[in-house]
Design brief:
The protein is of the alpha+beta class. It is 32% helix and 24% strand.
Length: 404
């Protein structure tokens, strides 16, 4: 039996390793269009590779996927975050869990993960064909013909692991086989705020914020990073993932409301201000920053509230206090456009999950054709969730691909 894996990324490699382990007599070939495999693994997490998340309850884990929650909840019964940890540790890859539950290799180097995969592939006898894009696929007499630029390959089974595709036409070849395709849109992106003066504070991070998209119920929580183009960080990326389709319909023109003090409410903030006024009333407000943010950001927000930094805390009147409270808890910014991570591009969309058997990852339309990874309409928020979906679906596809 010859098993063809289209795509040499995270899901492709995990599919290949799973298939070869389960069906050692099969010939397993990865077809990769680039000159190197595992390109996304290499650059992910700033080159550190966040392999999974320490959310070991499968139902809780599945809640981190804007698209695919129910599908993955079932899939995680076969291979979950604990399975990932066990898989790597069994192959002598030491891991470290950080306070935000993200799990990285102890080396903090994605090459550790790549080397592990390449070593395993060599030991098992998985073949890798580089610079071999598969442009289309045909079914002939219960076999699959894969058409490259100049070659064609005949295989018995196929696992498609080509990742998220930014354009709908890139998925036409799967639609032609009868699959419903959910149109792709960007899922993880940062918010552009052209000309907004907050961009001058690039590099500033507030660790705990709560950000809302105005006029919606969408909320992102966690660190917020100010960049030279606007805002990023987990709180923003969460919003971009959960709001992927809605924001696309708005053509990425909308407003966000930032609570710089996380979930602090107005009454609690006013009490906090009163305590500061009572204890440090003679001090200048610009010199005494009682909140978990940099002094640069604090002074920026004071200026935005119309309060001079030389004002004494005890001199803040009711009107100025109201403005400050509103700025800290409900700071409004216009967003005009987005910036996606080209190397780490994540999409919402792909092959509809209704067309895939979750127990095997086999197509319900074409026998012998399987899917794994982001080619399906699955995407997670940041924190190792997208890789976990790749490992899980790849593992299941691989261990079922050789079954009759």
């Amino acid at each position: 039996m010859i098993i063809g894996i289209i795509g040499g990324g995270a899901a492709g490699f995990f599919s290949a390793l799973s298939a070869k382990k389960k069906f050692p007599l099969a010939k397993v070939i990865i077809f990769e269009k680039a000159s190197k495999v595992l390109g996304k693994v290499k650059v992910s997490g700033g080159g550190r590779c966040n392999i999974t998340n320490a959310t070991f309850d499968s139902s809780a884990l599945a809640k981190n996927y804007p698209r695919g929650e129910n599908f993955l909840k079932k899939a995680f019964q076969q291979f979950n975050a604990q399975s990932t940890v066990d898989w790597f540790e069994k192959r002598s890859v030491s891991l470290k869990t950080y306070p935000d539950d993200c799990i990285f290799p102890l080396s903090n180097d994605s090459q550790t993960i790549i080397d592990c995969f390449l070593k395993e592939a060599t030991q098992l006898g998985v073949e890798v064909q580089l610079q071999t894009p598969i442009l289309s696929l045909e079914i002939k007499e219960s076999k699959f013909v894969l058409f490259g630029r100049e070659q064609e390959f005949i295989v018995d089974r196929v696992i498609v692991t080509t990742g998220g595709q930014p354009k709908l036409e890139q998925l036409n070849w799967l639609a032609e086989l009868g699959h419903e395709i959910i149109p792709p849109v960007p899922s993880l992106f940062t918010f552009n705020m052209p000309e907004n003066p907050i961009r001058e504070l690039m590099g500033n991070v507030v660790e705990e914020t709560c950000v809302k998209i105005e006029g919606t119920k969408l909320i992102g929580k966690g660190p917020l990073l100010i960049t030279h183009w606007g805002m990023s960080g987990p709180a923003i990326l969460q919003l971009s993932a959960w709001g992927a389709r809605l924001l696309e319909t708005k053509k990425y023109q909308f407003a966000v409301l930032v609570n710089w003090l996380n979930e602090t409410k107005e009454e609690g903030l006013r009490q906090q201000i009163q305590v500061v006024q009572a204890e440090h009333g003679a001090k200048m407000i610009g010199n005494l920053n009682p909140f978990p943010m940099t002094n640069r950001l604090w002074n920026f927000l004071l200026e935005k509230s119309g309060i001079q930094a030389t004002t004494r805390w005890k001199e803040i009147g009711a009107k100025s206090c109201n403005k400050l409270v509103n700025t800290l808890l409900n700071d409004r910014y216009e967003v005009t456009g987005k910036t996606t991570f080209k190397e780490e591009f994540v999409t919402a969309g792909g092959v509809s999950l209704t067309e895939i058997n979750v127990k095997s990852m086999e197509s319900r339309k074409v026998k012998g054709l399987f899917f794994a990874g982001e080619i399906m309409d699955i995407d997670g928020i940041t924190g190792g969730f997208n890789f976990q979906a790749a490992w899980t679906t790849g593992f299941i596809a691989g261990k079922n691909v050789g079954n009759d």
